[in-house]
Amino acid sequence: MWITLLVLVLLAVVYWIRQRLSYWKLRGVPYVKPSFPQGNLAGVGKKSHMSEILQNCYKQLKSSGKPFGGIHFFINPVALLIDLDLIKTVLVKDFQYFHDRNLYHNDRDDPLSGHLVAMEGTKWRNLRAKLTPTFTSGKMKLMFSTVTAVAEEFDKCMMHEISRSSVVEMKDLLARFTTDVIGSVAFGLECNSLKDPEAKFRVMGRKVFQLSRYRALKIFLAGQFPQIARAFHVKLTAPDVSDFFMGVVKDTIEFRKSNNVQRNDFMTLLMKLMKEQVEQSEAADQIDHLTFDEIAAQAFVFFLAGFETSSTAMSFCLYELALQQELQDKARQNVREVLKKYDTISYEAIHEMKYIEMCINESLRKYPPVTTLTRRVENDYRVPDTDQVLQQGIMVAIPVYALHHDPEYFPNPERFDPERFSPAQSEKRHPFAFLPFGEGPRICIGLRFGMMQARVGLAYLLKNFRFTLAKDRMSVPLHITPASTIMTIDGGLWLNVEKL
After folding, report:
1. Half-sphere exposure (Cβ direction) of 453: Cα atoms closer than 13 Å
2. Which of 142, 237, 258, 390 is the S-S candidate for 264 at Cβ 3.0 to 4.6 Å?
């Protein structure tokens, strides 16, 4: 009796899995053949980075001539978008069908996961609208002096490093620079990681992005099966990281309240929002307002996104400029010419350094920190000009890395060429071929800040130092860390640094 029942259950499970893995075939959609249990993700995190796997899928599906194709993340069907006009429709025109990112969050057990990047629906929309004013060009201008103050310390730190050795590991140094910038702007605190590589902020920031294969798999599986993960109280933030950041936010809020401290930074805006919402909800007899946990989560994600993506973009940019001295000289000349006009690195000056911006954009094209954008289908959606319907709950993936390396949009894509982002070249290209920050209502809220920080960092470095590759310590082409959630250099960035 029990054996028969068990056999029947097993047969039902096998049938269900086969149906899941035949999802796209049954609907007549071009697909890349999956295998059990990983679907199309065999080798991810071990031999290959996610970007490489999806690039191979993209190439196979693009030849079909269809606007999208089918792949599988484990047993879950995923629509891989190919056509740029369809990508534009999904991210902008029909955003109401695709407003959530399908990222795992568990506010109950892991409060720091309840941040703007993962937040969903009306809650996301309301908070996004309230936070957007923090990132206007006017607010960036107010924060600029904070960034340059840290950059001055960065300059001194570079001098100290090259006094000890002409070969410098720049990836960690750049992350220490951006950690100190973000710590000051987000929390109003001096992190001191430039002076002390083992400063608590740097240690905790580094820990978040240190991924073993097990942890990378845990993050991915939680995203694919969120209800099951929440039922098992799965947390993605390490307890010591959570305790540290919650403690920092609590201490900062309490200090500012008791001492009436006002600063032009992210924390002040969040505190102001919380106060306004508490007053409004009390007046309306409601309890829906920004909580301490939500403030901590927003500060946490702003810190992580701000230090890691900007330092990564600068690392890749320096690597390419170290390989091509003529481009480095051109970038340095751009800095010097602008400084002849302004005498100092001001907010206006860095926005006139157009070639520096082109170098950063080309770095973001060749090495996008976020290599894949994801969205969840909220209601059944008929794909324009087809008879195909994307069913509610299905995940949609936009292969940013593959688009950035498609020779149709970027000829000779492995070549680092900042001229691709000259006004004339940019105008010729479909605007959705370049998506380092996403696009539409869920575009990265901090992109202005990230670009400002990267411009300042590179301007200071190129003004005062020359970089060449430490060939005995570096590989060409670069090795990318396979298990990393964002694209990062495996083994660090070792450069010869010469004071000019």
Report:
1. 33
2. 142
